[in-house]
């Protein structure tokens, strides 16, 4: 089974590039996952964005620390099993922290997201939340984990914690693709899949306002960067719930698309 994981889709340019990529290469994959927590101008996801992603061929959309930024998420998370938020929110949070759906091959795939606790909201322990879930899932499950975390050390430790227990553990949130992909005990790992959006930016936002805030310490509203976008993604080949290969993708949208 071939799985595509599309890294954090940022605002309009990211969505445009992701859709173009899927139109061109979507058929090559049996199951597609995308992080969509930045698609609404950097902050959350709306109903319209979710529908566009699902229509483009995405099977599951994951969120993260921006889950609640767009108010549609409260409803959407209750309506569809194709949108998930971090598993380690305290009990009672709307929606699902994991979902199990069928791939084009007929195999079932479980997608889980956890959020790290370093420089992010203090949620429940992601290690313990994953442990509890994995003991609950059937032994032969194909599980892909989205590690939405800021600190490399935390993602690396979660990756090791999951090695030999899941098909893949892929980092999101930091928006710059890392080059440390590996397969350990059948588990594919990458510290960050990278951002799908305008790479010539402060992780998706225009530099001007970001630099102003750093230099002056004063508030200023961020504005999403515009221009040509790149899809950052990972292609996985899975068999029997474990990874056979992991390959990073960086695909620049064609000239004139922006
Ligand atoms: Fe994030």
Describe this entry's structure for a reader.
The protein is an alpha/beta fold and 258 residues long. It has one domain (2-252): Purple Acid Phosphatase, chain A, domain 2, CATH 3.60.21.10. It is built from six helices and twelve strands. Helix 3 links the parallel strand 3 (60-62) and strand 4 (83-84). The protein is globular. The two termini are 33 Å apart. It binds fe (ii) ion. Fe (ii) ion binds next to loops. The site of fe (ii) ion has 6 residues, from loops. Fe cation 1 binds at residues 8, 37-38, 175. Keywords: Metal-binding.
Provide keyphrases for this structure.
258 residues, alpha/beta, Purple Acid Phosphatase, chain A, domain 2, 6-stranded mixed beta sheet, binds fe (ii) ion, metal ion binding, 2',3'-cyclic-nucleotide 3'-phosphodiesterase activity, Metallophosphoesterase, metal-binding, Metallo-depent_PP-like
